[in-house]
Write a structure and sequence with these properties.
- There is one protein chain.
- By secondary structure, the protein is α/β, with parallel strands linked by helices.
- Helices cover 43% and strands 17% of the residues.
- The protein has 15 helices and 16 strands.
- The strands form five sheets. It has a six-stranded parallel β-sheet, sandwiched between helices. A four-stranded parallel β-sheet has the order 11-10-12-13.
- The longest helix is centred in the C-terminal third of the chain and has 19 residues, at 266-284.
- The chain is globular.
- It starts with a strand and ends with a strand.
Length: 385
């Protein structure tokens, strides 16, 4: 690790450049050098002040943003969250966004953050500010100042909605008169406004497509447990298709401890496949069981699952058809090949989900939406890659 020596009194310490940059920024905050209601100096300016390159400054700012200490108010500008919250009225037109990833990732990996991009675009279009909180402990502590400052509203992404420990925080925010909308679904969330992609109809559509193309023995393959709301929605869609179309419902397969998602290379794909093959082998070679299609949780699962099938002597696309979800198969860090391409997938239209979340908040504030909690399902699109 590159290190820099910094003199502090009579003691010389060695710290990483990123930690050094973070410490300097925090000292500037505590000393009042970064003024309330004014943007922080640019990355370049901060780097010049510290005598380091922009890279550690950028990383330090990203970490402070994820912790809810600062907020990204434009592609190149940050502001102090706590400084803004102390000024009466500053948050009245701001939307607080509970979301685990940083705005930097939304911008650099836009196709993997369509929900966040949808929220951001709608917020900017309506002329609101956005304050992102990305740490669960900061979210738990937020209900007090949110109740006091009364922002325009609060949006919580699915990265936090499934955590039941936040229920009390959600309730306090709503009881304070601030509208909150969640991207997720569960029985214990029924008292809140929610908007989600229609995962049930998406799974139904994929199963129906497979059946129409001669696939009758269709299994579901998941790498997440039922704490994910969309797993339950997709299971309902699959079961509805099995009942209506008359193909035999097969048990879902859950593989714990393996996460073939996000960006990875072919070497990682093949490594993941070896773990998956151990589970699939029991299913594909079980007596009285013939599998001719697999419905994966995501397109990103399809490559490792296809390689696993090959390891077990089953040819993907011929012996077994592999379907995906999310329409992300083109987004790998390498050029996808035939093994990574699902025969059919579904686009969750997450940008539309994000935009609808902002629209529902606006409806609550204007009075156009009143009364019982709203639960809206945004249509998904079935796609043949």
């Amino acid at each position: 690790m590159v290190e820099v020596g910094q003199r502090m009194g009579d003691m010389a310490v060695m710290v990483s450049l990123e930690v050094f940059a973070r410490n300097r920024i925090e000292k500037m905050i505590s000393a009042g050098e970064l003024k309330a209601n004014l943007p922080l100096p640019s990355e370049r300016k901060l780097a010049d002040m510290m005598g380091v390159s922009r890279t550690p400054v950028s990383k330090a700012l990203g970490e402070l943003e994820r912790e809810g200490i600062i907020n990204k108010i434009s592609p190149k500008k940050y502001a102090l969250v706590q400084a803004a919250s102390k000024t009466s009225g500053v948050l009245s037109q701001a939307i607080v966004f509970f979301n685990r990833s940083s705005r930097e990732k939304w911008e650099h990996y836009a196709d993997f953050h369509k929900y966040e991009r949808g929220v951001l675009s709608a917020i900017e279009k309506d002329g609101h500010d956005i304050f992102t909180i990305g740490k669960i402990d900061k979210i738990r502590d937020s209900s007090g100042w949110i109740s006091q400052e009364k922002p325009f509203g609060v949006i919580c992404s699915d990265s936090f909605v499934s955590d039941r420990s936040l229920l009390g925080t959600f309730e306090k925010i709503m009881e304070s008169g601030t509208s909150i909308i969640l991207c997720g679904d569960a029985d214990w969330l029924s008292g809140f406004d929610r908007v989600v992609p229609d995962q049930e109809t998406g799974a139904y559509g994929i199963a129906k497509w497979l059946h129409a193309h001669g696939r009758k023995k269709i299994i579901r393959l998941h790498f997440h447990d039922h704490s994910k709301y969309w797993i339950n929605m997709r299971n309902r869609g699959y079961e509805k298709a099995a009942k209506e179309l008359g193909f035999g419902k097969m048990d879902e397969v859950y593989i714990p401890g393996i996460s073939p998602s996000g960006r990875y290379d072919r070497k990682k794909r093949d490594s993941l496949a070896r773990g998956i093959a151990g589970y699939l082998g029991e299913i594909l070679f079980a007596k009285k069981t013939t599998v001719d299609a697999i419905m994966c949780s995501s397109d990103e699962n399809c490559g490792p699952v296809a390689v696993a099938c090959e390891m077990l002597g089953k040819k993907p696309g011929k012996d077994i058809w592999i379907a995906g979800f999310d329409n992300t198969w083109k987004l790998m860090s390498y050029k996808p090949d035939s093994k990574d391409k699902p025969v059919v997938t579904a686009d969750n239209c997450m940008e539309d989900v994000g935009a609808r979340a902002v629209a529902i908040l606006s409806g609550r504030r204007s009075g156009a939406i009143a009364g019982k909690p709203v639960f809206e399902k945004v249509p998904v699109e079935i796609i043949e890659p």
